[in-house]
Amino acid sequence: MGNLTRRRFVQNSLLTGGALAVPRGVMASGAATPPRQTRLSQVGYEQVRLLDGPLREQFDRNHAFFLALSEDSLLKPFRQKAGLPAPGEDMGGWYTFYADFSPKGPFHGYIPGHSFGQYLSGLARAYAQTGSKPTQQKVHRLVDGFSKTVTPKFYVDYHLPAYTFDKTCCGLIDAHAFAQDPVAMRALGPATDAVIPFLPGRALNRKEMYARPHKDDAYCWDETYTLPENLFLAYQRSGEARYRAMAKQYIEDESWFAPLSEDQNVLPGQHAYSHLNSLCSAMQSYLNLNDERYLRAARNGFRMIEEQSFATGGWGPNETFVKPGSTTLAESLTKTHASFETPCGAYGHFKITRYLLLETADSRYGDSMERVLYNTILGAKPLEPDGTSFYYSDYNDKAQKSYHEDKWPCCSGTFPQMTADYGISAYMRHGPDVYVNLYVPSELRWRQGGAACAMTQTTEYPASSQSTMVLTLDRPQSFAVLLRIPQWAGPKTRIAVNGRAVDAAVQPGTFASIQRTWKSGDHIELELDMPLRLEPIPYQQAGGQRVALMHGPVALFAVDDLTASVTRAQLLAAERVSRSSADWRVATAAQPLTLRPFAAIGDEHYRLYQTITA
Ligand SMILES: [Zn+2]
Fold first, then answer.
1. Planar angle of CA 594, 595, 601, nearest 5 degrees
2. pTM of the full predicted structure?
3. Which of 84, 243, 583, 612 could disulfide-pair with 235, CB 3.0 to 4.6 Å?
4. How far is the CA of 179 from the centre of ligand 1 (A)?
5. 35-77 pLDDT, tens per residue?
6. Over the range 294-328, which residues count as b (16 or more CB within 10 Å of their CB) and which as e?
7. 431-527, which class in CATH?
8. Ligand 1 centroid vs 335 CA: distance in angstroms?
9. 118 CA to middle of ligand 1, Å?
10. What are the sequence ranges of the domains in the chain?
11. For residue 63, how far is its CA from the centre of ligand 1 (angstroms)?
12. 342 C-alpha vs ligand 1 centroid, how far in Å?
């Protein structure tokens, strides 16, 4: 950051013609310098098992879907570009190698093989959780197949080399880390050599990309600024210094992290998902370079995104951040159906909130994560075998769920990664202490002082306000269990241990800590007071009356009469239709209005923001 850095960037990128000056084929230089430790520690994929419920169902479905996908089809564009025999069906859509692609659409052949690494990553993370041998074997076969195709020819006339390499890098790291793949990290070396001649020497934003000579517009949409996160992870995994050097080279300081670290809002007009995702690169830069400015950039950038978020937790209508204070967000309710890029956005949102939660132990990042969980990704339509994918959540005043027109888009890659990350997002550790971040049916297992410990969580939250956690311990153990008390929680929130109320400080917006010597069979009951509340759309002009009805983390969408006239008091008096129904009913001067959570919405029209008349 600052002038020195800027000068270095200029030298590297322009004077050397763009190629990155990193020696080829550098071998492992020993152990990596370990990253800075976060305050809380992440649990391993293998430590958490999701139990029956909607999250488990979505995870299982994606796992089975990618386990069944043809390996020849997945490897086909890589084999074609390498001039190797390429049997199997074309995947179609963005994934296919198609020489006559046009950026005007359709997006057939847009970024061949782009999501290969993400499918690999999703499978590797699924293997770590389930121990499914067929999944591990598939990961190994895919890496082996991929490693035989690596050639710089792959990136000739390729629209988004950094984008695809970033995903490939992540997939190979995950195959090694979570599926014990024997060749993945060795394959990453040549895969990195292959892309380097096609990368600019530094991170470029879209304006800079457009300013360079380009064959067509699609060459200007690459996302070099998201590279550092996985490159730092590659350095940590391999110990090879060149990944660290390359990570540093692609940190987008000048127009992005430096101003964000100084609390300047440089979001407006930026591509939404990739820039939220780049905040994860800021976190890895902070952890690896031990430079607090990157933490500030990530925290400030994320806060600025939250300030322009919909009540669902989603952000970036038309994939673009808006100007603070502008009416763009409110206008998007009538102007677009592309309100929030959901699997990608939710995946990035979980990732950055997890980083920030681990670093700061600020429970409000968990509040933000669960809002995105229940109101966006959990309501995503499932992938279809031909690559038909859910892409945008629609918050238009006349909204409807739909699939994207392109097959195998970006969101087909992040979806299996997202659902594989549900488990590790639910719990965090601090020494012997256990933080419960998400209230989801699940089991956490760990060892402590030689004893096997487990916590089993049973809940129908957020449909129900109650969650129960039961401990199973070889022998009594002393530690704290910390429960996230959401910022919106009401005064009747209660915690009980073995049926007796505990006087832990139950403060909304913090973790409530219960420290004691636990014995097997001890159970904790959490009752979250979930008062109904109204949230206005951000930057509403004076006199604006657009509000969303919230029940705890859940946004309630009107589903029958989308033009009903309703008052503030009527919305706040909404009642559940029945204990077994997800629906809520609001009495109005005319017909009663039905409201429904996103995950319960099918093909009916719906509306997020109601217009209140008083
Ligand atoms: Zn996407």
1. 110
2. 0.94
3. 243
4. 25
5. 999 999 999 999 999 999 999 999 999 999 999 999 999 999 9
6. bbbbbbbbbebbbebbbbbbbbbbbbbbbeeeeeb
7. mainly beta
8. 20
9. 12
10. 50-199, 431-527, 532-611
11. 18
12. 7
